[in-house]
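Action item from last week, closing it out:
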Amino acid sequence: MGNITSSTTHLQVNGLNPAQTYVFTVTAKNRVGEGSPSEMQSVTTWQAAPSEPVRLQVVKTSPVSIYLSWWRPRELHGTIKKYQLVRNALNWTKDQIVEELVNIDSPFVSHTVRGLHPFTTYVFKVRAANMQNGTELWGNFSSTLTVSTEMRAPSSSPQNLTVQPLKGRIVYLTWQPPSKFYQNGPLKQYVVRYQSVSPIEGCEDKDVHYYASEGHSANISGLLPGTEYIFQISLENEAGRGPPSDIVRVSTLPEELCRLWLNKLIFEHQSLRQPQHLKVEIEAGHLQPQLFFFPF
């Protein structure tokens, strides 16, 4: 290292590397020459913060998890004790989530981040820390990585479904889409299912209708007058169909029910050979007419 004055009994050595072991000896020198060196003394410098991890990348994604990997810092400056993985969700919240990974000795690190939300964009960054005398020495963060989770079927149904009868065969439906947080992907279409509470033999009483995602209302026609129906609506995206809404019960207006039943009953008995009088009676509270035949 060079010569120092004879009166010097201590020396600070600068420019050493962190977490490195050095060996020192001291030799006295006069006009005659140089004496024997002292016994060797070794000393290890303290650890320092490492450099940033490198090659942060995504390996695999799912609707609720992201599998990441990275390589440890090029400049360790000691022994890596832990990593800190930070994520931010861009779609719904600006909250920052910090996750610490400890006891990782491998130069290659992989980790699955779980509990994520479908169809959401996240930004990740990672840093490493050494430990010296109980103090965490954190290095710089890596470059950021932006990645999105995959779609999943909607986790909520459309809200506030209402059904209003307009005519004997038509009802009017309105609804509201669920929050985008629960749509889990771009909307594809709404699905309305309905059926009569008491099926009538020979009459179509249930069906499925599809409506574009931009609309929030629809007319359904071709129903049976004076008939009670149940309605439900659900939502679809490219990943699948979400849960149905609560059931809404409504009865169509009964204005044409008698005429329809008469036509049906007359058709069933039109093959009778002898002329007959036809008498129809409707009891209070009963929608189905009673048919009686009397000969001339």
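Closing note: The longest helix spans residues 257-268.
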